[in-house]
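hey so u asked for the seq, here:
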Amino acid sequence: MKFCCRKTVFATFAFCVAMVIAAHGQTFKTLLDFNGPNGAIPSSLIQGIDGSLYGTTEGGGANSACLFGCGTVFKIAAGSAFKTLYSFCAQPNCADGVDPVGLVLATDGNFYGTTIAGGASGRGTVFKITSAGSLTTLYNFCSQINCIDGAQASSLIQATDGNFYGTTYEGGSNCVDTNGCGTVFRITPAGTLTTLYSFCSQRRCFDGANPDASLIQATDGNLYGTTSSLTNCGGASCYGTVFRITLKGKLTNLHSFQYSDGANPAAALVQAIDANLYGTTNRGGADPTDCTSGCGTVFKMNPQGTLTTLYIFQGPDGGNPATALVEATDGNLYGTTYAGGIYSSHCIFNGCGTVFQVTPAGTLTTLHYFQLTDGGNPLVLLQSTNGSFYGGTDAGGDLACSVDPNGCGTLFRLSGLDPFVSFVRGAAKVGRNFGILGQGFTGSTDVSLNGTHALFTVKSDPFILATVPSGATTGYVTVTTPSGTLTSNKPFVVIP
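ran it, structure tokens below
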């Protein structure tokens, strides 16, 4: 569900610092309490080529034209040094956008993102921002009559063709809803937008409606995503869908949720190393008293489109997952639930949420229960190349927050796994350059792709620029550093 400043009012409590409930030696730490001027309601986190984390907040910042503030882009460096890079609504009439919801690191080293409000029409923008905080608006949604180009965009991804792809929750050319049922779009780095698909193009919206999460590009080159079910009836049973769409815009509905197997998939999918897609539904699965309309599920979908429900949340173990799963270096999946947990009286929505681990077979372990003072209602999760997980919560933390007495949210770290390397973009043709993210690269002596040595340049301690070598095949990347060998968390795809 799209929110314009999605902050909800939480009951006010004051409790002692949360007990850490973790597994496998993982430890939880709150890194930062948002207070309003430095942001509120974190909505994304991404690792930059300098090793720092960059993110967005939907509220807070230096400009108060919005109820909870208009949002920010921020940077948090090693050692937890925090800096606000940009506060939205810095331009007249908020022409630069309001409520940013995501960032993606592009191959040019800059970040690209979207806002769900503001801009020329008030229906959101696409923007580019440098690591120093210089922002350029690339596109204003609802620039076309009846918003057929879309409105309220999700986070972007950069595909193998160098362009960015995303979805919009509203707008498009087909829908019984006057606001539109959403779109899939492509936008070039220069800002030229093409609408690839308008949802509710099929009878009774069998193809889905109102996509609420970013896309992923799978190893087959196609894009995969989900549509939600809270605004319009999407899918065969009105509970949302999983879809596949080609880069040219041909869409196939792979699965319509039935409530018993989940409802309202509100987060992006992830493709694991077993080639299956994994995701969550925000509702459905069962109907326990601890959640309204079900507590949600974790599911797996094979390449043929067959869906298997791996886990059904019940409330005390978490409820309403709304964050994309992360496949970690230990082979397990990690995620958060927005609600549920054992501290059910500390937040509304029947709990403050959890961080969990789930195996590909569906065995779930709760790693942390939020209880407001350490954060509440998490909606952001990332695994950094240092092995730790970083995330953000919608509420809690400093209860003296200037825009909400119940807390503006937090940034947290859950540590305990080993370091690895990842990519700016995990696919390229032979002879093309690709970026490697990590740490301790100074003095590295070798980079290999699936055993084939590659030419490389150490650009900085956390960033290497390498070239896909002749004869290389899809596989893991290893970097030999002075302190040992680091291996990528996922295979790098060599494009034929």
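Confidence is low (pLDDT under 50) at residues 1-24. The first strand starts at residue 27 and ends at 33.
lmk if thats what u needed
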